[in-house]
Amino acid sequence: MGKIGLILIGVGVLFLFWVIGIFNALVRLRNQVKNAWSQIDVQLKRRHDLIPNLIETTKGYMKHERETLEKVTAARTAAMSAQSVGEKAQAEGMLSGVLGRLFAVAEQYPDLKANQNFLALQEELTSTENKIAFARQGYNDQVLFYNNKIQMFPSNIIAGMFGFAQQEFFEIQDQAEKALPKVAF
Question: Which of 87, 95, 132, 156 is a good FRET partner for 126, with 20 to 30 A between their CA atoms?
Fold first, then answer.
C-alpha cells in the first residue's frame, strides 16, 4: 500500500467520523424535542386533572349552565384523546376557549366567585396555563433548532439517509388566545 492508499484510508476515516458526528447531533436534537414535548405533556395532564374538580365545584352553583359545563367536559375529552402535535394544539385551544367562557359565566354567580375552592382551582389553572405557555415556547425553540439542522446542508444529506423527519410546532390555533390582552383604566 502506497502513500495514495494511506491518504484514501485517512480521508475515508475522516468522512466516517464526520457522518457519525452529524448523526449524533441529529439524535441529540431529536431527543431534546421529545424532552421538551414531555414537559408540555406534564402540564397538559395537570390541566386536564384540574378540570373535573372545577366542574364539580361549579355544578352546585351553576345549575342553569349545564350546556357550558358539558362543553368543558367535551373539550377536555377531545384534548385528552388528541394524538398529533397539531391535533393537541387545536384541541387545547378549544379547551382554553370554553374554560374562558366558563369563567366569564361564573362572574354572574357571586356565591361561586366567593367560594374558596373555586378560587383556588381558578388560580391553579391560571398557573398551569402560564407553565404550558413557557413549556410551549421551549418546545418550539427545540423544534426550530432541530428543523434547521435537518434542512441545512450538509446535515440534510445525513438526515435524509437516516430518516430524520421534521417536527411540528405547537402553535396557538385560537385567535382569541393569540390576541394581546387589552388593559383599560
Answer: 87
